Amino acid sequence: MKPKVLLSRKWPAPCEERLSRDYDVTLNDADVALSAAELRAAMDSYDAVCVTVTDTVGADVIHKNQRARIIGNFGVGVNHIDLDAAKAAGVAVSNTPDVLTEATADMAITLMLSAARRSSEGERQLRRGAWESWTPTHLLGRGLRGKTLGIIGMGRIGQEVARIAQTAFSMKIVYYNRSEKPGGERLGTVAEVMERADVVSLHVPGGAGTDGLIGAEELALLGPEGMLINTARGTVVDEPALIAALQEGKLGSAGLDVFAQEPHVPEELRVLENVVLAPHMGSAVVETRVAMGMMVADALDAHFAGREIPNRLV
């Protein structure tokens, strides 16, 4: 009998086809997020449960006597999964690192360019028929060439953003990271990066250690001409402080792909012209999303074959 596997959301077709071939799979064709009660029931009914960032898998979902012995996470970040509870229950958790690096870095650069050149603002103006004429001062933006880019979290994605920024725009790189990394000047604190940089891009994982890392004080250091880019986790930034800084001109602009309470995006952010907003689509490239799903499938294959699970976190 094939192991029973649940996918909590709709996955790219090649991934669903592979898993349907190898396992007794339940697909989520409606693509609606599952409740905690539904996830807990799934842990009791399936041999493996495959989740995404939209699923909160806490201690109320994970327990010792459940049937599922592996949680395959479609994504790198796992702050939505209680890893301590999984470890205590003897449940393996895997994720999908590396394959998101280029796509997420590209998204950070996209937001950076859009915010700097005010392209989203211009498109909105054009679509509502408000563009009247070309003028020398219409929608003046800022160039990136020669500016200083600050990176908070110099992991794989942060390093790729630094590489693109240096290669394409000759940007100077400063960064904050727990260890030394190639590609820029390492500074001792987040505050130093915020103060030195023209643009700051966030690339730290979400969770207790980084929630609210960027607040009113840090944004004030970045300043009224500064730009904040976030493709990491929405909780890394104090969202009310960010809104206030943008409204009051204490921060120049922002490019956001993630939000504190997704899919809710505060109205105060949505009406601001100096913010570029995207619906958590940093890894939304066909090749990347397929690779993520295949990586989860590889982890399941290893688990059920009794082999070492690739990208195992607990």
Helix percent band: 25-40%
* Sheet having the most strands: 7 strands, parallel
CATH topology of the largest domain: Rossmann fold
Level-2 CATH architecture of the largest domain: 3-Layer(aba) Sandwich
Rg (C-alpha, Å): 21 Å
Measure the end-to-end span.
Answer: 27 Å
Give the overall shape, derived from the CA principal axes: elongated
Provide the succession of SSEs. Answer: EHEHEEHEHHEHEEHEHEHEHEH
CATH H level, superfamily name of the largest domain:
NAD(P)-binding Rossmann-like Domain
Question: Structural class per helix/strand content?
Answer: alpha/beta
With strands numbered from the N-terminus, the spatial order across the biggest sheet is: 8-7-6-9-10-11-12
Number of strands: 12
Please characterize this protein's 3D structure.
- The chain has 314 residues and is of the alpha/beta class.
- The protein folds into two domains: 4-97 and 286-305, NAD(P)-binding Rossmann-like Domain (Rossmann fold, 3-Layer(aba) Sandwich), CATH 3.40.50; 101-277, 3-Layer(aba) Sandwich (Rossmann fold).
- The chain is 36% helix and 14% strand.
- It contains eleven helices and twelve strands.
- It has helices at 13-22, 36-45, 83-89, 101-117, 119-127, 156-169, 190-196, 216-222, 239-247, 267-270, 286-305; strands spanning 4-7, 24-26, 48-51, 70-73, 92-94, 148-152, 172-176, 185-186, 199-202, 227-230, 253-256, 275-277.
- The strands form two sheets. A seven-stranded parallel beta sheet has the order 8-7-6-9-10-11-12, with helices on both faces. It has a five-stranded parallel beta sheet with strand order 2-1-3-4-5, sandwiched between helices.
- Strand 6, helix 6 (156-169) and strand 7 form a beta-alpha-beta unit.
